[in-house]
Amino acid sequence: LHSLPPERVAQRGIGLVPEGRQVFPTLSVRENLVATAADRFRRSSPWDLRRIYALFPRLEERQRQSARTLSGGEQQMLAIGRALMTNPWLLILDEATEGLAPVIRTEIWATLATLKREGLAILVIDKNLTALKALADRHHVLEKGATVWTGSSSDLARDIEHVRGLIGV
What we know:
9 helices
């Protein structure tokens, strides 16, 4: 996938929430969401505006606002919603809660847990070991492209100080 253009990656069922959110600042919240909408796999319950607004009610309240006027947390919700509107098989989030207020971080992690319960495959790249331990089934620590540690959440709980040292937290 690394050599494919972004639209080809999305067509294969991978939704990306990039580090730094990267919403379309001149578009409204609603326009950001519908810009990526696709149901390529003909899901029985595809992601649409109704489902995104149910997941993130603040986005519905702000649907006519320009994305640039949203708070960082709201922009992150929008970035997640935009990725979900592609109806992915796999959702990838890079530093999902970096730089966000604690209350928004909690909301994002709770949302990811909801998505997991609904059966969505999720890959999260993050340094928040406590939240990851509660969410993820498997954990991998990479250093310069090589796996230096891997394990389950119980393994992570047992080796947490070692893993913190590996990731520099």
